Amino acid sequence: MDNTSSAYWKATLGLLSKILIIWFLVSFGAGILFAPVLDNMHLGGYPLGFWFAHQGSIYVFVALIFFYAKRMGDIDRQFDVHED
């Protein structure tokens, strides 16, 4: 594997690692682990921990999909492996 391939996969795996960490923190962290702390705040009349577990995590997941698509396109163009 040459240096370009290694750098491409390093950038790709770095992006995936960051997205998975955010995904974990939002779904498991905000919805379960930090729910008692977050429940002291309210959003739309509901405790924030409950809101993250039922609504907020979905919004974050959709945002992560768009972020991933944009960043992967940038990485592909950077390493000249993009599709026209």
From TrEMBL:
Asked if the record carries the keyword Transmembrane, the reply is yes
* Stored Pfam families: DUF4212
Domain of life from the UniProt record? Bacteria
Coiled-coil stretches are: none
Q: Give the transmembrane ranges.
A: 20-38, 50-69
Boundaries of every Sodium symporter small subunit domain copy: 6-82
Q: Which UniProt keywords apply?
A: Membrane, Transmembrane, Transmembrane helix
Give the protein name, as stated in the record: DUF4212 domain-containing protein
